[in-house]
Amino acid sequence: MPSVNIPLSAGYGRRGPDDTSAGTVYAPEWSALVSNAGGHDYGVIGQDSWKVTRGALDREIVIAAGRGFGKGVIDTTDQASRFQLPAPSSGSVWHLIVAHRDWAARQSSFTNLVGNSNAQLPARDVTPGLLDDQPIALVRVTAGQSQVTEIRDLRVWDALAVDDLVLQYLNRLGSSVTIGGVLWRRDINTLGNPVWVRNRTVDTVTDNNVLAGAPWDKRSPILSKFLSGSPQVAAGSLTTLGIPDGGFPNGGVLHVSVQITSGNSAKMCTVAEITTTYIKLQLLDEFGEPLPSGTAVPLSVRVDGWVS
Q: What is the pLDDT of residues 218-229, one digit of tens each?
């Protein structure tokens, strides 16, 4: 099968206490890996990293330059990778494009795994520490066609994806991913089996509720912002709050604390998402049910972050 080596990898580690060969994760790689991976098994760093598109040659695919990580290894490509997929004798065949990681060889590479006529993920290596495959796209080639006929994007950014097929390989219990505005969570059913549960629709970040806030409390390198107001609940009981004054400049949010004003319909609150420019709160009533869309909830919020 075609394969293209990835030129720069970090995180394979040492084979033993006396091993001094390559594989160390230096500060820049460690910072990128930890800040992006978090509790996720796989992901890419950057909107266009490792995006798969059609090439100019017969059945050629092009994998854009960028960075990705999987199972503790972070890989970097500084230019596009290309290879051609084999032509099927008849009908259509789906190929899974993966970042293949080999701990014994300490080498990562892009390659394809041949599937069948169904748009599903074929068997792949899933033994971290030995061999592991990170899916990045499912590509269909058709007999008699010079270009690939369909590409399904299987990349993941933090907890965001664009195709439901990612649910076939993201299987860590407790993990969640948003696909097309729908939040999925890996849960355990009443029989004790792992299942994906579709939760309520997540509202998009538009028409943010921007609360009134005092000036930044500057205790460098920590900044604090005190916000207050009565934001309205959006779809799925999630309320998006914009952080005024452009958010946290060149930094990020460390902590969010919320105080719900007594006497209103919201009794419970959790922080669903934090970014440098907005936070999302999930507001529920005393029975744990979502509040109706449009409900105004008086509250105050303290946001602590850092600047670099």
A: 444 455 666 666
CATH code of the domain covering residue 74: 2.60.520
Beta strands in 149-202 (DSSP E): 150-153, 156-157, 160-161, 176-179, 182-188, 194-201
Of 120, 154, 142, 146, the closest CA to residue 41 belongs to: 154
Each residue's pLDDT tens digit, 15-54: 555 555 545 555 555 555 554 556 678 999 888 999 999 9
Domain assignment present for residue 298? The answer is yes
Closest CA to 299 of 209, 222, 223: 209
pTM, full prediction:
0.59
Q: Please report how many Cα atoms fall inside a 13 Å half-sphere around the Cα of residue 142, on the Cβ side.
A: 8
Token pair recorded at residue 293: 């869309």
* CATH number of the domain enclosing 213: 2.60.40.3940
38's tokens: 């978090």
The two three-digit tokens of residue 124, written as one number: 């792949």
